[in-house]
From TrEMBL:
It comes from Tistrella arctica. CDD domains: HTH_XRE. Coiled coil: none annotated. Gene3D superfamilies: lambda repressor-like DNA-binding domains. InterPro entries: Cro/C1-type_HTH, Lambda_DNA-bd_dom_sf. SUPFAM superfamilies: lambda repressor-like DNA-binding domains. Residues 7-61 form the HTH cro/C1-type domain. This is Helix-turn-helix transcriptional regulator.
Amino acid sequence: MITPMQIKLARTALGLGVRDLATAANVAPSTIHRFETDKGSMHSRTLDRVQQVLEESGIIFIHADETAGPGIRLRK
């Protein structure tokens, strides 16, 4: 599962505002904001939609392992 920080990093890397991502994923901007600030959770379907939008926009999510935490990369 992707983390709130990964969503914020991905959104920033793509130059998207909270409203931009919310519109693209068809969710309320407050849902994105609450999740990014760790003040709320997202239903798994909603999180999947947000992840899909970001991946289709060129983001690769990197999961944490024993040497490093989670992160993102941009597709070529």
